[in-house]
Known about the structure:
Strand content: over 45%
Helix content: under 10%
Mean pLDDT: 93
Largest sheet: 8 strands, antiparallel
Shape: globular
Structural class: mainly beta
Oligomer: single chain
Number of strands: 18
Distance between the termini: 22 Å
Low-confidence stretches: none
Amino acid sequence: xxxxxxxxxxxxxxxxxxxxxxxxxxxxxxxxxxxxxxxxxxxxxxxxxxxxxxxxxxxxxxxxxxxxxxxxxxxxxxxxxxxxxxxxxxxxxxxxxxxxxxxxxxxxxxxxxxxxxxxxxxxxxxxxxxxxxxxxxxxxxxxxxxxxxxxxxxxxxxxxxxxxxxxxxxxxxxxxxxxxxxxxxxxxxxxxxxxxxxxxxxxxxxxxxxxxxxxxxxxxxxxxxxxxxxxxxxxxxxxxxxxxxxxx
Length: 248
């Protein structure tokens, strides 16, 4: 059962840590579809082509109430502003399986009628869709023969996965009988990050080393909602990991 008091969890820190609570129950954000309009002579009305989704502006109102010995609201607001202006990830406690990516934060003027009390609005500019939290990737072991797997993507739109290939040598990845992705001279591992449009290898210190010269094109895989079929061909590949980055 969910608690009726909803917490905003920003970069893994609850608003309660700053003595903040959300006023009311937040709305459920939904993105607007972006369209390009075409006028065709001789035809009634217009034609529309969907070109993507708009970012979402999402406003939360926060209340602050503190014991007098802790400090005035104005003093605590300095810390709160620092926390919010660094924000990159938003979670709400009544949706524990998803998070929103924060692109921009705007903090409104705070009302402060009583020394220890205050309230203010925060407007977050969010990526169009929330992401399903994945604590672990899908993981498949592979021998010298080709690997074919079918897996579910709970996304409501196409999502941009991160695929990690472990092993060595050359490899070709086929996704949903569509475009193939070829990689050459893999040395221990290679990461195909479709969301960031990066191909790299991670060293022992966690640093990324560019591996884009080892891929045959600038295209990156996309997963469709529902079942996806992945085929990996390459005798030297020993393991495949898939982070689906499903969007909802």
